[in-house]
Design goal:
- The chain is of the alpha/beta class and 637 residues long.
- It has two domains: 73-365 and 382-433, Methylmalonyl-CoA mutase (TIM Barrel); 490-634, 3-Layer(aba) Sandwich (Rossmann fold).
- The protein is built from 22 helices and 22 strands.
- The strands form seven sheets. It has an eight-stranded parallel β-sheet with strand order 6-5-4-3-11-10-9-8.
- Strand 9, helix 11 and strand 10 form a beta-alpha-beta unit.
- Helix 11 crosses helix 14 and helix 12 (315-330) packs across helix 13.
- The relative contact order is 0.09.
Length: 637
């Protein structure tokens, strides 16, 4: 049913359509002279401009559509090393609403040190227990030994008497992704192409339809890739597979049909939606350049590992919800939501159920699947999609231009260090944003909870041994790291917890000046900051007396606190009136004195009075917390 024309809504005639200039004029009044660009214009990690307002857009050219409209697949990972428990969890996932299983064998990066240990058809049969292979979609997470695992699965299909052509299996071969993750590849690229084509031919000969090869963006995202870098890497990987398979004698159209994509759904809704839409448009462009009529690629999306936190892991539920929503709106064909406890160990049944239900609510209650490409026509999404197409293509061309040791493209970019250098630059930028809290992490760097309740996992996070060098590797590269953004703050919290276990929690005394109304803002800021490093910083009722601060009571409060650091917290007026006197009183009581806020013109006088550091918005919080924790733990009695 089409929308009614304006004439059918006479009450709308009472409202004039505002012009952009009118809106801009109203905004300027609110800004009161502040810079429009700095206040209201954002930038993505790729430098793409995000305006506060966009007009409606009419999509030009091809639409980024899926092969078939309808529900996306709800994926759950099978990764438990014990076959019986893996079978139980898989069956529970399927009975609870999942309709796709990702098989993560030991050694796969996605298994996080766990993974299936099946080495025979009998083992795999037990691992998949009562799973009806003809009723679910299966995909293999890329791992070393992918050929052996794929053939095990094929043999299991034969053992159970299924028609391979009636099954939906993505075999997930991604030797380039494994090279990037592990740092070595056993064979040369030409030999790799021959092996890959031979294995695909063998599987097709047995009746399997594929896809067989995965261009996986997760290894790049975990190493710090921006949206455009991930897109460029996935495109370059897929094109490399096209070349290898064609060189091995496979028709180009068949090679194209053998490829699927895996992309990361992160916590930024706009960039995630635009990234998935851009991936389809970019792949269409590659197909056209190859002389092929474009066909939609199957895209599996997984929520971001690097966004997960070990501290206050319940916040991961929100992260997973935003990411899954974005992947659904962006047009993913299947989605895997990482359970909220995944960073702590192997998730239990409850965490897996919540991960499934996140998608089921979006499917069954929000009905996201009922609209094909819901972002179409939105000025903001269309502009961002187009910008990511341009940026992703530029990154793809940059990787394609690389050469090393007779190789070209993405493998050459890994071999000569070009890819690693680009990712390292982005990691450094993002690490600085995390350290200064310009990129806040709720529950970790912002609003930490020192009394958080523990959560349950089936197995604790394993200590993964360092990768072993392959003695006969034909290609060696610097392996890409896997990182989570919260790790630096989590390390500080762990250090504070060790100190707490040996006695009492390290603490900072908040030396509040003036009445509660005056010091609350900065005391709250300071408490939030120190607790992000695991240091207690309780806020009391203050030390106000007759319109001023009782400095003797303040100094006595510090002595009784047992803290080593005293952080002054008050309004600018209180700092001007009492800051120097309060600092002297605290110094006489033996405190190392910090101040919450910027010192302004008083800095020299405040430092002379004994203040050693200032904590304020935009500062390097990680460095400040390291200093505070070192002072606190070193001087404990």
């Amino acid at each position: 049913m089409s929308s009614p024309a304006p004439a059918d809504l006479p009450f709308m005639d009472a409202f004039a359509t505002p012009e952009l200039a009118q809106w801009r004029g109203a905004v300027e009044k609110v800004l009161k002279g502040a810079d429009f660009e700095k206040k209201l214009v954002g930038r993505t990690a790729d430098g793409i401009r995000i305006d506060p307002l966009y007009p409606a857009a009419t999509p030009a050219g091809a639409r980024p559509m899926r092969a078939a409209a309808g529900r996306w697949r709800v994926a759950a990972r099978v990764e438990h090393p014990e076959p019986g428990e893996a079978a139980r969890l898989a069956l529970s996932d399927l009975e609870g609403g999942a309709d796709s299983l990702s098989l993560s064998f030991a050694g796969a990066r996605a298994a996080r040190g766990f993974g299936l240990t099946a080495t025979s058809v009998t083992d795999l049969d037990e691992t998949l227990g009562e799973v009806m292979l003809d009723l679910v979609r299966l995909r293999l997470d890329p791992a070393p030994g992918g050929r052996k695992q794929a053939l095990l699965l094929a043999d299991l299909v034969t053992r159970r008497g299924h028609d391979p052509a009636a099954l939906t299996i993505d075999f997930g071969f991604d030797p380039i992704g494994v090279l990037a993750s592990a740092g070595h590849l056993a064979v040369t690229l030409p030999a790799l192409g021959e092996r890959l084509a031979q294995t695909i031919g063998e599987l097709k000969g047995r009746g399997f339809a594929g896809p067989f090869v995965a261009a996986d963006g997760r290894v790049w995202h975990e190493a710090g890739a921006t949206e455009a870098q991930e897109l460029g890497a996935v495109l370059a990987t897929a094109v490399n597979y096209l070349r290898l398979l064609e060189a091995a004698g496979m028709p180009l159209a068949e090679a194209r049909d053998a490829i699927s994509f895996a992309l990361v759904a992160d916590t930024d809704e706009f960039t995630t939606v635009a990234k998935l839409r851009a991936a389809r448009l970019l792949w269409d462009r590659v197909q056209e350049a190859c002389g092929l009529a474009p066909k939609p690629v199957f895209i599996h999306a997984e929520t971001a590992w690097r966004a997960l936190t070990r501290r206050d892991p319940w916040v991961n539920l929100l992260r997973g919800t935003v990411a899954a929503f974005s992947a659904g709106v962006g047009g993913a064909d299947s989605i895997g939501v990482l359970p909220f406890t995944a960073a702590l160990g192997l998730p239990d049944g409850f965490a897996r159920r919540v991960a499934r239900n996140t998608q089921l609510i979006l499917l069954e209650e929000a009905n996201l699947w009922r609209v094909a490409d819901p972002a179409a026509g939105s000025g903001g999404f269309e502009a961002l999609t187009q910008a990511l197409c341009e940026q992703g293509w530029a990154r793809f061309q940059d990787l394609e231009a690389q050469a090393a040791d007779g190789m070209t493209g993405i493998v050459a970019a890994l071999a000569n260090g070009h890819a690693q250098a680009g990712l390292a630059r982005e990691r450094e930028v993002r690490a600085k944003a995390v350290a200064t809290r310009r990129l806040p992490i709720t529950g970790t760097s912002e609003f930490p909870n020192l009394t958080e309740a523990s959560v349950q996992v089936l197995l604790p996070e394993p200590t993964t041994p360092p990768g072993q060098d392959a003695p006969e590797a034909a290609i060696r590269v610097e392996a890409l790291p896997s990182m989570r953004l919260a790790e630096p703050f989590e390390a500080l919290r762990a250090e504070a917890d060790i100190a707490t276990a040996a006695g009492t929690r390290p603490s900072v005394f908040l030396a509040t000046l003036g009445p509660v109304a005056g010091f609350t803002a900065r005391a709250t800021f300071a408490r939030n900051l120190f607790e992000a490093g695991g240091l207690a910083a309780p806020v009391g009722a203050g030390f106000a007396s007759d319109g001023a601060t009782d400095l003797a009571a303040l100094a006595d409060g510090f002595r009784q606190s047992g803290a080593h650091i005293a952080c002054l917290c008050g309004s600018d007026d209180d700092y001007a009136a009492e800051g120097i006197a309060a600092a002297r009183a605290l110094k006489a009581a033996g405190a190392t004195i910090w101040l919450a806020g910027r010192p302004g013109e008083q800095e020299a006088a405040l430092r002379e009075a004994g203040i050693e550091a200032f904590v304020a918005m935009g500062g390097d919080v990680l460095a400040q917390l390291r200093d505070a924790l070192a002072l606190t733990t070193t001087n404990r009695t």
